[in-house]
Design goal:
Layout lengths: L9 H5 L8 E7 L3 E6 L13 E8 L2 E5 L2 E5 L4 E4 L5 E6 L4 E7 L11
Antiparallel strand pairs: 1-2, 2-8, 3-6, 3-8, 4-5, 4-7
Amino acid sequence: MSDSDIQVKLSDAAALVSADHPARIVFEQGSEVTVELYAPVGEDRQTPHDRDELYIVATGEGTFRRGEEVVSFTPGDMLYVPAHVPHRFETFSQDFKAWVIFYGPKRLAPTGAT
């Protein structure tokens, strides 16, 4: 998607993801905002990121862990994760897909963080 585009359809973005590549960038605005569609298959293997992020659940349901916190999610829910905090979708239905919005500058990991 470019600056002149106005819309990204879920179906078009979903066609870009696969089991081997569960996340695909669908929009970038400089280094300040990146939007991806995320659709893991079987297991969420992501590791902490160096930017703050929002997940907006497009389809599916399950449970999400951020640090020691666990919440259930359904379509339309938004989940927030600060940079460098361990997180993952622990359980999710086969139709799970979420928009991921990375925003702000990259941040260094706190001293002593892994």
